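User: Fold this; tokens only.

Assistant: Input:
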Amino acid sequence: MALNFRNTVRLAGLSVSTALLIAGCTVIEGGNASEGTSKDKVELSAAQAVTLANQAIASAHPLTVSSSGIPIPLPAPRRASPVQVASIDPSAGVSALSSRSPLQDFAGVYGSFGSAIAAAGANKLRTPSDVRRALAALTFDKPNALAEGWYVKQAMIAAGDPVFAQGVRTEVRARNKTAVLEALSTDENFVMQLPGVSSASAAVAVSIRNEHQHIQGLADRFIDTAYRFQKQKWGMSTPVPGMAETKTAALDEEPSLADKARALAASLSPVSTAQAYSPSVMNRILTLGAYQVIEGSMEKGLAKSQTSTGRCLNWARLNLAQCIAAAHFPSEEAYCTGKHAIAEVGSCWAEALPPSTLAN
């Protein structure tokens, strides 16, 4: 009977609980409280409930959901896209952070150093605290990233040269994109064959020259500050005789290891100072610029190993650390900052151009 009841209710469009509710209402309305137990003690057997429910459903005016006034529960709205449960693996957050482009990291390192240079330029350099504040900002620990950031900055100048950009696009149309990209990745001198390369190299040369002059002027300010500090009682207890007149610091008497290494490399290099550019540096700048024009990004040209510029910057970093470790007076701190944190870094970037170009 229970099975027939469920089937009958299902055919009528009612749930079992609704049918039982109807049966319960029928009992309460039709019963006589004086003839039985009190209303709160009335209990129906399963058989009685089923009989009364069947009678209600089979009556002359069968109930429907709409006619009974029973509210229809609406289905819960479905989300347009299911909620994705985040990984509970702690390394998931680290992997999300690691998705940051290496190009962005390089640009960030170079941008931070550029901000430090700008702040040093605005620094009054009146006290040892001023020098130490500048020194802290100029100290870097990622020479390779700083080198790549500098390359990216100069490559954007090359890519922005309209003559060079048009020449690169012309070469792509003539040889197809794949062939040009292959040549750029396998031959560092290929970029010099592209139309308009002389215009881009000239624009980059001007940028590097202006940058070098600015950095050299800033370095000179720190060296002058070192001389000025020497004249103060707190600057140096025993000033070096004749330093203020000759402006040659004691640390300049012995060339640094980096200076010796670069002098040796220059003597062995087949590139003469009369050439208009340094292939190891300028060619790479122009190659990255060509990638930017073709791909809209220079990710493919980023260095997978340390470049000569990165090695040079690393020497500057080590020389600065050694100089500061040996410094005892504020004047020496100012000298180390100007000599290694600024001037030597600038010389690493200036290697793209011969000294004759920098002097113009």
